[in-house]
């Protein structure tokens, strides 16, 4: 009877140990999966932090990463957009070029989405809101006034592609002529557009030293929106 009791006790202890080993193996597997998930989650957080402060408005193509590395592990990043006007192209450097339509006459709002994946099939997704402003289209035959109306739609920090030429009357000498740098800054009014003046910033060229209020001049250069001021950029020239 004692032998039977001892045998049953040993059997129970063995089964308990086996159950403990099984539970330990399961716990180890769960920890392993948690570690895998935390790694790719870290990759997501890293990518999110990388682009959290990137410009939300894009007027030209830009590049994003094709992979991220956390510790010794690398994660592939595949980019998508919810607009078929946005294209993606891998570069030799490993970056991904985001090709936008800079000449789209309509403003475009889209989500730029990154899908992060590892070699085990785990995936994470993060998105960034982006905007492409409506292109300022200047066509041949437009009047000076029509050009001014168009460039006044420029968003802050953006410029018109290519040089433009405008004729207007000087309504203010913003910065007097500087003989050292041979330039002057003046404000001109085009036609009857009194409420839409154009600043000619550091204007140079023959006769710039003799300009005064009331003179009618023709200016050629790049027009941009600088912190709310529509202006010919530095380097603009007096045209004949």
Quick description:
This protein has 240 residues and is α+β, with helices and mostly antiparallel strands. 24% of the residues lie in helices and 38% in strands.
CA distance, first residue to last residue: 122 Å
Number of strands: 14
Order of helices and strands: HEEEEEEEHEEEEEEE
The DSSP helix count reads 2
Q: Per DSSP, what share of the residues sits in E-state strands of 2 or more residues?
A: 35-45%
Quaternary state, please? single chain
| Model regions low in confidence, pLDDT < 50 over at least 5 residues | 1-14, 18-22, 24-36
Query: What summary fits the major beta sheet?
Result: 7 strands, mixed
Summed over residues and divided by their number, the pLDDT gives a mean of: 87
Strand order of the largest sheet: 12-13-10-9-8-11-14
Describe the global form: elongated
Helix-residue proportion: 10-25%
User: What is the radius of gyration?
Assistant: 33 Å
| Structural class estimated from helices and strands | alpha+beta
Description:
The protein has 240 residues and is an alpha+beta fold. The protein has helices at residues 2-51, 144-151; strands at 62-65, 67-70, 73-81, 87-90, 95-99, 108-117, 123-132, 164-178, 183-189, 198-203, 216-221, 223-226, 229-232, 237-238. The strands form 3 sheets. A 7-stranded mixed beta sheet has the order 12-13-10-9-8-11-14. It has a 4-stranded antiparallel beta sheet with strand order 2-3-6-7. A hairpin with a 4-residue loop joins strand 4 (87-90) and strand 5 (95-99). It is elongated, with a radius of gyration of 33 Å.
């Amino acid at each position: 009877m004692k032998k039977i009791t001892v045998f049953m006790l040993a059997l129970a202890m063995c089964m308990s140990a086996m159950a403990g080993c099984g539970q330990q193996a399961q716990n180890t597997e769960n920890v392993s999966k948690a570690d895998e998930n935390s790694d790719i989650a870290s990759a997501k957080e890293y990518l999110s932090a990388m682009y959290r402060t990137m410009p939300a408005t894009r007027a030209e193509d830009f590049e994003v990463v094709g992979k991220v590395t956390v510790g010794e592990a690398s994660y592939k990043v595949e980019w998508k957009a919810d607009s078929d006007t946005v294209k993606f192209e891998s570069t030799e450097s490993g970056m991904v070029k985001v090709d936008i339509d800079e000449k789209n006459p309509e403003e475009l709002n889209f989500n730029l989405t990154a899908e992060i994946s590892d070699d085990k099939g785990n995936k994470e997704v993060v998105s960034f809101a982006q905007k492409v402003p409506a292109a300022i289209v200047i066509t041949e035959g437009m009047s000076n006034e029509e050009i001014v109306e168009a460039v006044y739609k420029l968003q802050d920090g953006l410029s018109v592609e290519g040089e433009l030429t405008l004729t207007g009357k000087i309504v203010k000498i913003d910065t007097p002529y500087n003989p050292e740098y041979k330039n002057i800054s003046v404000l001109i009014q085009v036609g009857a557009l009194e409420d839409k003046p154009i600043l000619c910033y550091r204007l140079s060229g023959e006769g710039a030293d003799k300009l005064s209020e009331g003179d009618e001049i023709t200016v050629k250069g790049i027009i941009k929106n600088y912190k709310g001021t529509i202006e010919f950029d530095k380097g603009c020239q007096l045209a004949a």
